[in-house]
Amino acid sequence: MLAGNHHRMNAHLNYGTAGLALDLSGVNATVLAPQFLAGLPDEATAFTAAVRSPIGTRPLREQIAATDRVAVVIPDGTRPLPNDRLLPWLFAELAHVSRENFTILIGTGSHRANTPAELDTMLSPALARGYRVVNHNSTDAASLASAGRSPLGYEVRLARDYVAADRRIILGFIEPHFMAGFSGGYKAVFPGLAALDAIMHYHGADVIGDPRSTWGELEDNPTQRHVRAGGSLLPVDFCINVTLNTRREITRYFCGDTLAAHRAGCAFVKTTAMVACPQAFPIVVTTNSGFPLDQNLYQTVKGMAAAARIITPGGLILMAARCNDGFPAHGNFRKLIEASASAQEMLDRIMTPGFAVLDQWQAQHLAMVLLKARVALYSELTDDDVRRAHLTPVHDVRAALDAELARLGRDTPVAVLPEGPLTIPYLA
Question: How many angstroms separate the CA atoms of 373 and 177, rounded?
Fold first, then answer.
């Protein structure tokens, strides 16, 4: 929804777990927030109904035999899927299969493994300790096995436990995604369970740089094409996708055949999570949706990329993201940034034929944003680190906003995305 006025007193910015109040009095602000959808009144009953009358395939329990070895794939801890609720309902529906037959695979993609404490939170201690749980490791050859060759021309190795399973069930949630169009669907498998070399193809500079690799584009999106090609090499027997509101309540289920369920979910999300703007704004205040998405600068590029869609060239993106986990420390994101004296140099390096390193895609996105706009960051990073990332550190969001308004004129239009990339704005 679009709400604009001069008198709106406060916006609540999603920041960490506590949030941040922003006084907007006297500001010509347009607040862009997702349409709030109520959670389903009875998530458990609705789950059972959705898996018993799925989209485009037979009911779930009819597809899994008591003797089947079943891989259940969930996203990692950077994604707010309510596994602690969904998995017990899933296992109840498949009560004829003994728990020893299940392997819960954490689809980390190229992210770090989730710790035992994180798994207790993500899954509940009962599930984390009562089932076989495997963190995918994209660089451990022993834990990978070939799933075949992608039609896009490269070998795809996936988590060995997934390849070896008799039946495969994938879980995810659907929201607009800044490269793949939407999250969910086959993304659980690819890149979720893929080897690093395959992920590098999927995140190739030419794929990322393609203007169709963007939020809300599904069918003609080069990134999504890699996701579907790699994710469908082995049969997925059942897909459980959900949409969530800001309270992590489930608003809808899209279950069944992966492509059909995902398409239906994406169509629904486009109408609820994307908002058309009549014009661009010289200032956009935004977040990275708070915890768990704003734990590091790497993820925070997402929120910047959403804001960049409606910023006027050379405008100011004011970002509030906690980044309490740093850049983070692992991977090449930080190295790429620090090796570059400017955003242009960073982009030139990444676009050099033959250049390929882990995390380059996020640095590429950051560079693309910085070539369009200036970005100021309110976070827990040191000022030096913020400057190293070619951003401007700020310690008070309202003061930074006032300083820019003093430069441009008090009545300059300001867009505010208090929930960050939970709402994807686009120029109509």
Answer: 21
Helices and strands of the chain, counted as H and E runs: 16, 21
Give the distance from CA 290 to its chain's centroid.
13
Q: Is 96 a catalytic residue?
A: no
Q: Helix, strand, coil shares of the chain as percentages rounded to 5?
A: 35, 25, 40
DSSP 148: E
Measured CA to CA, the distance from residue 206 to residue 222 in angstroms comes to 9
- Annotated catalytic residue, options 136, 177, 203, 390: 177
Mapped onto helix, strand or coil, the DSSP state of residue 255 is strand
Q: For residue 226, indicate whether it is catalytic.
A: no
Spot the catalytic one: 111, 262, 365, 390.
Answer: 111
pLDDT of res. 204: 84
Tell me, what DSSP letter sits at residue 342?
A: S
Cβ–Cβ < 8 Å for 402, 269: no
Mean pLDDT value of segment 264-275 = 92
Mean pLDDT computed over 335-341: 93
Could you tell me if 14 and 290 are in contact, meaning their C-beta atoms sit under 8 angstroms apart? yes
Instruction: Collect all residues with Cβ–Cβ distance below 8 Å to 279 and sequence separation of at least 6.
Output: 413, 427
Q: Residue 350, Cα to own-chain centre: how many angstroms?
A: 22
**pLDDT higher than threshold 80 for residue 4:** no
Q: Copy the structure tokens of residue 144.
A: 């990978």
Give the type of residue at 227: V
Query: For helices 343-351 and 360-370, what crossing angle results, to 10°?
Result: 140
Question: What distance in Å separates the CA atoms of residue 173 and residue 185, rounded to the nearest whole number?
Answer: 8
Mean pLDDT of the chain: 93
Beta bridge partners of 376: 318, 392
Mean pLDDT of 128-144: 92
pTM (2 decimals)? 0.81
